[in-house]
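Q: Is it fine to ask for two folds in a single conversation?
A: Yes, each is treated on its own. Send the first.
Q: Here.
A: Result:
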Amino acid sequence: MRRVVPRALFFGAGWLFVVIGVIGIFLPLLPTTPFLLLAAWCFSKSSERFHSWLMNHPRLGPPVRDWQGHGVIRPSAKILATGMMGAAILFPMVLVKVPIWAKWTTVVTTTCVLSFIWTRPSRPSKKGL
């Protein structure tokens, strides 16, 4: 028998992800867009009104629409993510005494994430328009 997740659970999770995403705007180690994507998905399962609100929000909506519509990450977001991640790994690399394996793990993980970010298109392709 298949369990059905109550709409209220999706609705609550949507708001939780919006809050975490907004906090991520100000904290360099916490990404914003993935949490907003999760919020949009949760709202799509629970509330057409709040899904529409998020998608049409002047600040929060554009990165979600860009990603959902075209798989696009804007150049300004790429630069900001690179700078924030660089600053976030520079601190433990230089100022904190951590084992070498932890430093290498941080460098490899950050390199993989930045490789993903920088290989995404920066604007929608002309074919999709």
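Q: Second one now.
A: Result:
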Amino acid sequence: MKQQQSISKLLPVLFGFFIMGFCDVVGISSNYVRQDFNLSDTMANFLPFMVFIWFFVFSIPTGIMMNKLGRKKTVQLSNIITLAAMLIPFIQYSYYSCLIAFALLGIANTILQVSLNPLLSNVVGNNQLTSALTAGQFVKAISSFSGPFIAAFAVLYFGNWQSMFPVFAGITFLFFLWLQWTPITDTSEKSSTSSFSEVWGLLKDKTVVLLFLGIVFIVGVDVGINTVTPRILMERCGIPMEEANYGVSVYFACRTVGAFMGAFILSKFSATKFFRIGMAIAVVALASLFLVSGKPAILILVGIIGFSCANVFSIIFSIAFRKAPEKANEVSGLMITGVAGGALIPVVMGLAADLWGNQSGSVAVLLLCGLYLLLCSFINTNSIN
């Protein structure tokens, strides 16, 4: 009976990671908006910027607010904002309405990521946290994988890609109700409130700095591949956008498989070694993207990158949690601030692509991110085992 109660609490929290995956739709959205409004790579990549810059602005305030409001209530606040964001592009479609909608989505996703990860620790034990976080990333990957298919369905049956947003709004509302009806004891509620200086003070620890930058670059790789894959396929293979967008699904499909396998492997295998092996493979695949031009080869490399990087975020996050378990809310706020890498890296990629004259400039930026992550897996290993 106790195990059934635990599962009944775990399932709605894990489903929250599906909502978290909605932010990844910005990759294909930016390509549709780029085409519809004839934008440059730099201008189109401001859509991911509008999603992920809020992780830098709101992550730490959310962690502080969560000490007063509680984890579950903070998750529910994110759901309300997500509902509003999902309706704007459907009601009014323009470049600026998309910027506003994705800004709201970014704010909501920031609040969700800061609060949902600690909420998960309320329903699983510390020894199960890495595996549970990886399972959450698996659910998020399913959501991300579904995005291009939902967009294609919207175009086919409704004549425009924006029709996918009411679908996301409906799913968000169902999650809101499910979580509301699930009794979860919130250990963070009424706890002491930290200041900004105390949260940023966590960066005095060199290992925390290493992990924080790791979050910046792994999210940068994730959002960057999501954004650039269709453009590489269109540029090098001459295929239309609707077909090229399925390249994103290949990435997320392999990432989904990687996260699923990681949930089991990480319960038995060293997270640090797993991190090293995955990033070594990812770096080789990123470097190889400079050399290939055929569609099968590009998709294979993109799939390898997705599979290899699938568990890096959850590994880094769980290590950070274990570094200061008594400050889980503050650590979560600080680490999620690093998700702002999803804003920074695509803009740098867009500038590099415009200067380079093709998408090889974007690939070069992603390769530098991958090299840092590989280095990250080898530095200070005594502290992050």
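Q: Anything structural to flag on that second result?
A: Two points. The chain is about 80% helix and 0% strand. The chain has one domain: 2-384.
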